[in-house]
Amino acid sequence: MGRRVNSIDELEAWRKEVIDGLDPNRPLIVVCHGTGCVAGGSPFVTKALKAALEESGVAADLAIEVKTTGCQGFCSRGPLVSIYPQGIFYQQVKPEDADEIVNETVKNGNLVDRLLYKDAKTNQYIPKIDDIPFYKLQHRLVLKNFGTLDPCSIEDSLASGGYRALSKALLTMTPDGIIDEVKTSYIRGRGGAGFPTGLKWRFARDAQGDVKYVLCNADEGDPGAFMDRSILEADPHAVLEGMVIAAKAIGSHQGYIYCRTEYQLAIERMNIAIAQAKESGLLGKNILGSGFDFDLEIYEGAGAFVCGEETALMASIEGRRGMPRPRPPFPAHQGLWKKPSILNNVETFANIGRIIYEGGAAYAAVGTETSKGSKVFALSGVVNNIGLVEVPMGIPIRTIIDDIGGGIPKKKKFKAVQLGGPSGGCVPTDHLDTVIDYEEIAKVGAIMGSGGMIVMDETTCMVDMARFFMEFIQDESCGKCTPCREGTRRMLDILEGICEGKGEPGDIEKLEELSEVIKESALCGLGQTGPNPVLSTLRYFRHEYEAHIYEKRCPAKRCAALLKFEIDIELCKKCGLCAKACPQNTIIWQKKEVAFLNKDGCVQCLSCYSVCPSGAIF
Predict the structure, then answer these.
(1) Both ends of the chain: CA-CA distance in Å?
(2) Which in 71, 276, 360, 579 has the greatest CB count within 10 A?
(3) Is pLDDT at 216 greater than 90 in this prediction?
(4) pTM of the predicted model, to two decimals?
(5) What is the residue-wise DSSP string for 241-292?
(6) What is the per-residue pLDDT for 110?
């Protein structure tokens, strides 16, 4: 049976006991147990480290322990292991590295160089986590507990300041006071639309109804996006705290976290956190003796992109097919089961505790005139440092990609970055100094979205990229409205034809016409923003469309139907890389000789194109 607290005093006494029991200089090995690192084998690394400590006798001598945390953010380098109090950072650790880490680093203070982070720009090893640009240049507010907190420990959450804002909100603030503080922060919903959160809460507070709902959108269907999942896995109590505060603000006593069912680790940790909060009196009846009741549960969705749209999400919770409906009435007046409801995403709720405890003005001090606070991005694609990045609003996109992300690997050139997921848009080199700001990003044809950021280098075909995202949109269309159902299908047909060398004069104009019709007439945000990748690529890379259609040529050499699969003997460097990369062994090469490609066995996999350093294959 856990500990139950019935007042602020009891909560603070518990927090003090936890903090007093911590030694900031205690020896500690921290292993990342986020989804990426778990998939990479971090549980086996943890097991091996514990065994190595026991076998060496170090565990008893130094009283060192092994601690597991949620996602630490540097996902491409996992499994991650950090050693404290020195703050040494090891990457891509395997179970067989455990003995060396214990005997060399823990026991004798020596570094294991091959496990250290090596900066791609300076080619220098960086031993300490706080010196690595990927971490050093971030501004972590939502992610502040990543890498230090055990998500399954409510005591860890208390030690980090968890539930301070909850006690303040429930026992010292009125609902109007909470809403005013959130409005002062000017936080905008982090799920994509960017609607002011305080205003949404005000509408729900003022709506008539004895039953109201607080809903958390944890569906996160964007390709390349994993911010919300990682927050749920790493700091679940922060999300719960934000939801209870929202409930007090609008007068709700029931909530749901709508999470796609494949997020099993997030669901498991959220269920543990919910049970701990209920047992401790921080969720359920008479929270902290305040007389306020609020309960919530997780609703597992089947995983549909359209269920990120609020009315579709509510329909799904009601047991119906997840399809949007026309608005008005807006959910703040008639939402779940026609009751006033607010829906915010995971990142938004994770910000609420800080806003209430430190004040809205402090939060608003970070950012730009119209975009306040910080934003978490899932940085992926062709970039050296892939992972979760949290930055203050107002910094240039270039800083994220070049400094935090470490730039483009293999000496390739940056071409564009897709912002805002499949319904976002691409930002080319000329606009790389655009700052992170809802309005500024919209000016260059992209959207903030939920924070997906996919980097592309010079080898990316922008027509094929638009085809990929349109295929996703078409697959995920619920089919309720004709513009989205039929219009995206038609757009995909045209894009596939262009990539297959069947493009015709007039195709570009048809794409533009269809885009405008769909944007104007689609029922929900999925359709209304679906043509964005096509429009933004036409805006900046129209010449690539024209090359495909009129010259039957793919400038990036990615569309197999437009390639000849022949080798230019003048350009060939005789290196043989193409022959080594060919899985079918259809390229004949001898040292210091020009390569020859035998088309009979070629499966057009493009492996040779990817490795050729001189562009000799055409």
Answers:
(1) 69
(2) 71
(3) yes
(4) 0.93
(5) HHHHHHHHHHT--EEEEEEETT-HHHHHHHHHHHHHHHHHTSSBSSGGGSS-
(6) 96
Gap between the Cα atoms of 524 and 43, Å rounded? 42
- Residue from 31, 28, 135, 114 nearest 79 by CA: 31
Q: How far apart are CA 44 and CA 93, in angstroms?
A: 10
Q: For residue range 503-515, what is the model confidence (pLDDT) as tens digits? A: 999 999 999 999 9
- Tokens 């909100």 -> residue: 169
Taking the C-alpha atoms of residue 128 and residue 119, their distance in angstroms, rounded to an integer, is: 12
CB 407 within 8 A of CB 401: yes
Mean pLDDT score across all residues of the chain: 94
Residues 448, 421 contacting (CB under 8 angstroms): no
Of 310, 259, 311, 247, nearest in space to 284 by CA: 247
CA distance 381 to 453: 8
State yes or no: pLDDT of 181 exceeds 80: yes
Q: Is 568 left (phi over 0), alpha (psi -120 to 50) or beta?
A: beta
Q: How confident is the model at residue 497 (pLDDT cuts 50, 70, 90)?
A: very high
Q: Which residues of 196-215 are buried (b: 16+ CB within 10 A; e: fewer)?
A: bbbebbbebbebebeebbbb
Distances (CA, A) of 165 to 153, 185, 318, 400: 18, 15, 31, 31
pLDDT recorded at residue 600 = 85
The three-class DSSP label of residue 493 is helix
Q: Is the pLDDT of residue 99 over 70?
A: yes
* Separation CA 230–CA 263 (nearest Å): 10
Split at pLDDT 50, 70, 90, the class of 26 is: confident
Q: Which amino acid is at 268?
A: E
Q: Tokens for 298?
A: 């997780």
For residue 449, the Cα-to-chain-centroid distance in whole angstroms is 11
Q: Take residue 503 and report the two structure tokens written for it.
A: 């493009």
- What pLDDT, on the 0 to 100 scale, is given for residue 242? 98
**Is residue 587 exposed (0-12), middle (13-18) or buried (19+ Cβ within 10 Å)?**
buried
DSSP 316-367: HHTTS-------SSPTTTS-GGGS-EEEEEHHHHHHHHHHHHH-HHHHHTSB
Phi then psi dihedrals of residue 573, to 5 deg:
-95, 5
Helix (H/G/I), strand (E/B), else coil: 389: strand
The dihedral through the CA atoms of 120, 121, 126, 130 has a sign that is negative
- What are the tens digits of pLDDT across the range 36-46? 999 999 999 99
The 10 Å Cβ neighbour count of residue 336 is 25
Mean pLDDT of 287-295: 97
Q: Which two tokens stand for residue 443?
A: 């000016």
Measured distance CA(415)–CA(456) in Å, rounded:
6
**Strand 596-597 vs strand 254-260: parallel, antiparallel, or unpaired?**
unpaired
For residue 188, what are the β-bridge partners? Answer: 196
Q: Average pLDDT in the 429-451 region?
A: 93
Question: How high is the pLDDT of residue 1?
Answer: 53
